[in-house]
Specification:
With 337 residues, the protein is mainly alpha-helical. It has helices at 3-26, 49-59, 68-97, 99-102, 107-128, 133-158, 171-196, 240-269, 275-297, 302-327. α1 (3-26) runs antiparallel to α10 (302-327), α5 runs antiparallel to α6 and α6 (133-158) packs across α10. The chain is flat, with a radius of gyration of 22 Å.
């Protein structure tokens, strides 16, 4: 397989893995196998069937975090993640061996290996530390980071050769694109914090929240990083007002993201040759907003919640594409690069 195709395959696989991870988390299967890397020390849930059956009996039925279906969901996610790690290692090896042919530095591909190793550690800690919000959110950030780096590496392989430099974009447009990427990254982190704290269902109406445009909120413990799931740092239950603060902050973040990206899209539209990028930004942003509202209105259906995670990943990819295209005038790729 060529380097270009291998990077493309890894990028698409990472996107799918992010959505699968969301499905595992949102279907309450994150502790389907409460140890790591195996399942009760076994390679597959089938081999651990006796241990799982004992755990199901102890928890009083399949409604708890452990069951055969949940164990399979968790382990399939681990299998695919492990395979992706091997693919990324292969990319790094190929990047070094073909660095003269590709006319590219292998540093980015090498850095990806380090990020994947860290992501694997977060995956292990997610289970062994019993779904601590900070760890689970860190795992999401790691997955999105892998996707972002792979996207940039893929773009380096797919940018067509140019015989002339493209028009030089204004510095304002470049900074707008960077700001857009920054606010999207921040919003993804906020969204992860909402999901890992199970705060998505605390507001079931829109555009209001609990019947108010400014509901009762408590920020003292809402964004405290070092704590257990559903608890304050001193071990008390996290109250509804704290969960509301988490949810509502994400909504406010969505307004900021929309304002910045629409400003960026308008600037792109007014720039010759950048209209297609503007349409991509507006299209993905509109889709993501619609899915976010739908999750509230329809009370977080699993399929829509998973798609909303995928929409966040797609929005990240879109902003990386915009930034890459605006930066591409600095280096004109050679044919086949």
């Amino acid at each position: 397989m060529s380097f270009k195709r291998l990077v493309m395959f890894a990028t698409v696989l990472t996107f799918g893995l992010i959505m699968l991870g969301a499905y595992v988390r949102l279907s309450d299967a994150g502790l389907g196998c409460p140890d790591w890397p195996g399942c009760y020390g076994k390679l597959t849930p089938s081999h651990a069937a006796a241990d799982i059956a004992a755990a199901v009996q102890e928890q009083g039925g399949d409604h708890g975090p452990v069951s055969i279906p949940k164990a399979w969901k968790e382990m399939v996610h681990r299998y695919i993640a492990s395979f992706l790690g091997l693919v990324i290692i292969s990319i790094a090896v190929m990047a070094w061996r073909k660095r003269h042919e590709l006319r590219q530095s292998p540093v980015l591909a090498t850095a990806l290996v380090g990020v994947v190793c860290l992501q694997g550690a977060f995956g292990a800690w997610t289970v062994t530390l019993l779904l601590k919000p900070a760890i689970v959110t860190g795992h999401l950030i790691g997955g999105m980071s892998v996707l972002g780096l792979l996207t940039w590496l893929w773009l380096r392989q797919t940018t067509p050769a140019r015989t002339v430099s493209p028009p030089r974009d204004s510095q304002r447009l470049v900074w707008l694109a960077r700001a857009g990427l920054l606010v999207v990254c921040a919003q993804i982190i906020l969204g992860g914090w909402v999901s890992t704290n199970y705060a998505a269902v605390v507001c079931t109406d829109f555009p209001t929240c609990q019947g108010s445009y400014w509901p009762t909120m408590e920020f003292n413990h809402a964004f405290h990083i070092v704590r257990e799931l559903g608890e304050t740092p001193d071990g008390q239950l996290l109250n509804v007002s704290s969960l509301t603060a988490i949810h509502f902050t994400h909504r406010m973040g969505a307004i900021v993201v929309t304002a910045v990206l629409l400003t960026l899209a308008l600037a792109l539209w007014r720039t010759p040759g950048r209209q297609a990028l503007a349409l991509k930004v507006v299209g993905v942003l509109t889709l993501q907003i619609a899915m976010g509202i739908g999750n509230v209105v329809f009370h977080l259906p699993l399929w829509l919640a998973v798609l909303h995670n995928g929409g966040a990943a797609l929005l990240l990819v879109t902003l990386i594409l915009v930034n890459y295209r605006l930066a591409s005038h600095r280096v004109i790729p050679h044919a086949g690069a």
